[in-house]
Amino acid sequence: MNITDVDDKIIKRAAELDEEPLSLARRYEREFFRDMKLLNVMRPTVVARVSECVESDVVPYIERIIKNGAAYVVTDDSNDAGYQSVYFDVQAFENMSDVVSWKYGKLAPSTAAVNGGQQFFNWTENDQSKALSSKGKKHPRDFVLWKAKKNTDTLFWSSPWGYGRPGWHIECSAIVESTMKRFPSYKVQVHAGGIDLKFPHHTNEIAQAEAYHFNKDDYKNIRNAQWIPHWVHTGHLHIDGFKMSKSLKNFITIEEIFSDLSKYGKDARSDDFRLWCFALSGSYRGPTTFSLKRLEEAKKIREKIKRFLVTGSSKLSHLASLLNEGEREWDSSDHRLFEAASRSRFNCIDSLVGNIENHIDFDGSKCLKSILELVDAGNFYIELERSGSPLSPLRHAIQSLRDILSILGFSENFVNAGAIESTISNVVGGETALANEMATLRSKIRHVAIESLRGGVEEKELAKLCLEACDTNRSKSISIGLEMLDSKSNDLSKTSEINW
Predict the structure, then answer these.
(1) Is 151 helix (H, G, I), strand (E, B) or coil?
(2) Which alpha helices (DSSP H) does 39-165 contain, by range?
(3) pLDDT given at position 117
């Protein structure tokens, strides 16, 4: 992961707060990784900060682009010391090769990529005074690779062109290149970002990389070369119909989403958010609208999936205890569940992988649909209540579901819901025994309360209080890692199920 800790916005904000820019950037970085931990997002294997790569990676990268003829140096009038800036020369880059695939603007709007971008940049050959900047930029499409130090700048590095700092686009290309050199067995296959980064940022990254790797004596490799083959751009996040932004003050923080962990539990909340992101928010390419109500929808779906894992695992334990009576021969219901599990597993993987040749993209909603079809098939199988059922069909269904949830990155508590724990505490019978006692007590209270609801007004009031007490008991149990799920079973011993 590349962390931009040097740019105009950070420097401006640091000045407003009377704080060192790099100190501010580190604070934001810590907050970012704290939020990622709350969301159960894995930490990157490699973290590269721009400030730590300027002299070792960025400056040599720019030097090579200049050497290949795709950049030029100009004296910047924003300082009195004669420090210079470096600009990427788009026209020179396009003249480097006759290979069409190497022309500027691979990810740009069509009007920016054709005819020299004149229409897009609102510039014509007869209006050169408008096109040329006061800093000596030759063409509106040119962009800065190295910014000369201004008289007022406090954050800068040395370079062959004097003191200054990297432009926004160059850092990514240079850091990707240096990282790939340090890990030669790996190649960056996917580059991701918001749709607003597609142009000009990602477009300029590609141009820089191609100019860096250009070799006029090796046209064959130029024709076949791809810097990064896959680019993923996500749509904007909306709240109440408007794009989320600080200026509109219509944003919600990750910290706010996790503000009431006593009600939801950290893992449960992160799982709900993950479920919403990958399956309930629409295509990742388009805009999506977030609300806490949508998280509640995700919670209901998660609980349905989790309930099957818990009841299914309990059913497996019960069937295993009856093995001495022997298994009956597989019938059509056993075959149907086994096939449903295999089909769901295949459809889920297929919806996640997609197919580039047939233009089939990642489809989280299709994956969730396959998961819920498996859950429905599993619940139907459990409700058949037959003796001597074989273990394999239900075991295959549960394991297939666990495998899918694990691939999607859900928490271990969710993935392993209902699994038998080996941990033994000081309580006789271990944690499972304690949990079962709590669940049994709660089941009895619920049973009495529900029956009382059929009586008079006073009994109904008492019943409501009992049910509220049950809900309080369930909420508090989350804080010790215990989640209780209410089932629809008429069996008193099964109206509450537990999961550590």
Answers:
(1) coil
(2) 59-67, 90-94, 110-113, 128-131
(3) 61
